[in-house]
TrEMBL record, chain A:
Transmembrane segments: none annotated. This is Sulfide:quinone oxidoreductase. PROSITE patterns: TAT (PS51318). One of its GO terms (molecular function) is sulfide:quinone oxidoreductase activity. Gene3D superfamilies: FAD/NAD(P)-binding domain. PANTHER family: SULFIDE:QUINONE OXIDOREDUCTASE (PTHR10632), SULFIDE:QUINONE OXIDOREDUCTASE, MITOCHONDRIAL (PTHR10632:SF2). InterPro entries: FAD/NAD-bd_sf (IPR036188), FAD/NAD-binding_dom (IPR023753), Sulphide_quinone_reductase (IPR015904), TAT_signal (IPR006311). Residues 42-144 form the FAD/NAD(P)-binding domain. One of its GO terms (biological process) is sulfide oxidation, using sulfide:quinone oxidoreductase.
From TrEMBL, chain B:
It comes from the Bacteria. This is Uncharacterized protein. InterPro entries: DUF5368. Keywords: Membrane, Transmembrane, Transmembrane helix. The chain crosses the membrane at residues 20-39, 51-72, 84-107. Pfam families: DUF5368.
Amino acid sequence: MSRRVELTTSRRGVLGMALAGAAAAGLGTAPAQAALVRSSARIVIIGAGAAGTAFANRLVQRLDGAQITLVDARAEHLYQPGLSLVAAGLKPPGYVVSRTTDWLPRGVTLVAEQAAAIDPEAKTVTTSGGQRLEYDFLIVAPGLVLDHDAIEGFSLDLVGKDGLGALYAGPEYAARTWQAASQFTETGGVGIFSRPETEMKCAGAPLKHTFLIDDIASRNGAAGKYEAHYVCPQSVLFSVPIVSEKVRMLFGERGIATHYGHTLKGIEPGRKLARFETSAPGADGEAVKSTVEMPYDYLHVIPPQRAPQVIRESGLSWADKWTDQGWLQCDMQTLRHLRYPEIFALGDIAGIPKGKTAASVKWQVPVVEDHLVAAIQGREGTAIYGGYTSCPMITRVGRAMLVEFDYDNNLVPSFPGLIAPLEELWISWLMKEVALKATYNAMLRGKA
Amino acid sequence: MQDMTLGTLIAVFEEMFGRWLFWGLVAVALVVTAAYLYVLIRDRAMSMHKFLWAQIAMPFGAVAAVAFVLRITRSGLRDIGGPIDVITLLGVAAMGAVGIAVLVYTAQSLARPLVRRPKT
């Protein structure tokens, strides 16, 4: 009898422990947020990509009564950090695609049209369908455009054929890039991996593609029968010197040849020739330009990248910097426009020295949120963006370096003493493979 | 990583597995743990016979856990690059070993409860 009584007690105890555990776990899911700020502000967000979506989700958690409108015609949302994996045959194209509307919170309005004009004086945005949206605050997050026409002889129809790849152009093109690259990894020949002279999305991606295709070629039919050439307009491999040196050493170990000061200007797909403009200092110190042609069996093209037309025509771009690219003029620490304080930049469009990555977006969004909410409350915001950017630099299938840095080219590791930033590690690969997309999605929902 | 809180971690895990699968896995882990505690309290003794089988299962659990993680991440043992990788791999192995041991012990105890010999 006494045994039975004790048994019952134990069951209760066990159940209690289970509930306590669930409650403890559940407590963590409640978003730690400040009290809602009442506002009737009209906030227009141009772009429903990583930055616009994450920002909208955070705003609805902070503001009560604000009228939030997103302007974006793209029905598909792309998880762009996954394109490198698609272009190396490691993920299917569907891995990067979801629907824009899947991520938008209740209480925001999506205008599924492109922004056609911005009038910062009248504080209005006009859409491609002719809608005129008035705003009190404008978040400019349209992303950037790939200028494929700048490469003479190249067009996207060619991708996947005759050894041409262009992974930035989207999931289908990334998959077609893998078609061309996989043939190279079987048959070998000369592989050329380029990068543009303009600012670009994820400056690590050209290096990742080089590392991945070189690694796969070295394990497949092309082993011993191929050359890999990394060709860039810059004089370094990466803007952060310490990372650049590490990559230079790894390229040396892998036998990847490097050509600095080479800008891809055109291709002849029939003859498989790439034409580069080269620049080298002459005897008088002036840059001497010339043209060289390089034959290829596989060529990866990354075109110049610029601000969308609507931004370049709005008068919001820098007048004295990046004049051929048109990035939005803003304070590098607050992302606030220097002439129109009610306008903020987020993501790729921001005219700042670093940070055209999703990781930067993750750090920029809370900063702009702080300044915007502060402005609504009639005070000054305090949050500062220090230029944080992260690049899980894949160095082969199965290993990566978790490189994180800021405006000052300092390494800012998330796990100091645990995960060395300049060491090729399996755990860093694990993060890119398994945890990165999940973290990205959590960011989109405003939870990370 | 910014603001690494429990809430962030849970949000990331929910995205990784899907909300239902993640909380389903948490529930399974809790149920197995609860069942394990239940049989321990019920029997008020460890059965060394059952524990032996649980121990025999441990290496298999460890190897299976490592093989599973390597397989889903398209990597191999040649990719282990530094001390943190070895520690992570050992952690995965340890979790697999302990997990299977608890499962095997609990399953045996639930299927064949301890029979106490009457005191003579």
